[in-house]
Model the fold of this input.
Amino acid sequence: DAKETRQGVALYESGRDEVHLRQLALMGDLRHAIERDELSLQFQPKVEIGSRRVLHAEALVRWTHAQLGPVRPDEFVPLAERSGFIHELTRYVLDRSLAQQKKWGEQGLDLGIAVNLSAIDLMDADLPDFILACLQRHDVPPQRLILELTESALMRDVNYAVRMLHRLRAIGMRLAIDDFGTGYSSLAQLKRMPVDELKIDKSFVMQMTEDSDDAVIVRSTIELGHNMGLRVIAEGVETEDSLALLARLGCDMAQGYFLSPPLAGDALSAWARDFSA
Ligand code: C2E
Ligand code: CA
Ligand code: CA
Ligand code: CA
Done:
């Protein structure tokens, strides 16, 4: 009845208030996370399926809040986008990632480093110069840096995105479309994107051996990517069976827990040595 409904609404709203308060607190604390040394990076290998070579490692940011413990990037990256902190966050991730790439090189491991950019970063006209300076500072060739941009970020303003991607590519970096299949881009729009790599979203990959609809989507995305001259990678590879199916479908690369979870920099170089041995 009406009373129950009112109580329900009150409960619901207090739940929302709590979420809202947590978000406000997190947004405020995030501004200090770098100076308080609460951010770190983990790296997850991207493996070439045919050769079992580790081609790239994707940098994934981690935040360990002093009181709250680990906060997931799915929660705090959107907050960073809303508060404007994303510019600083992205620069931190780029700087630390290139330092790690350099370190791996000194250990005899030549890996590409993949960094996630947000939609807001794409609108940042100063970013290409920052990246160029960062590459030079760490003495990393631009070809070793892969920028991952989500399909939905690219579709916000297609003309602008295309121009920005050309600028980034002119420096020599590689570009990947992330979370592919979730962003409703048309073939015509996709064709205009000067990218090198297509990442099939994990939501299609995780159940592809049980769900034939998912398998069909993955198979046709691999074909689409190859027809456009792109390298195709599947993320969310959690089982041996899904890796075997991807190999049969001709997918170029794989990433996921079955191969390795995200690891600290040193752990990743140890893993890569074992894996290729
Ligand atoms: P993403 O770029 O799609 O990254 C892949 C996510 O899937 C990562 O979650 C990774 O840990 C997780 N993952 C890897 N293998 C598997 C698997 O086999 N199964 C499943 N279920 N998941 C797997 P994570 O690290 O929590 O990051 C979540 C998202 O946060 C990322 O999605 C990305 O959108 C964003 N993110 C992370 N780091 C950064 C960053 O430095 N900058 C920006 N802008 N966004 C970031
Ligand atoms: Ca990514
Ligand atoms: Ca993804
Ligand atoms: Ca994602």
In short: The pocket of C2E (ligand 1) is lined by residues 44, 59-61, 72-74, 77, 93, 116-118, 178-179, 202, 206, 235-238, 256-257, 262 (CB under 6 Å). The mean pLDDT is 93. Residues 119 and 153 are 5 Å apart (CA to CA).
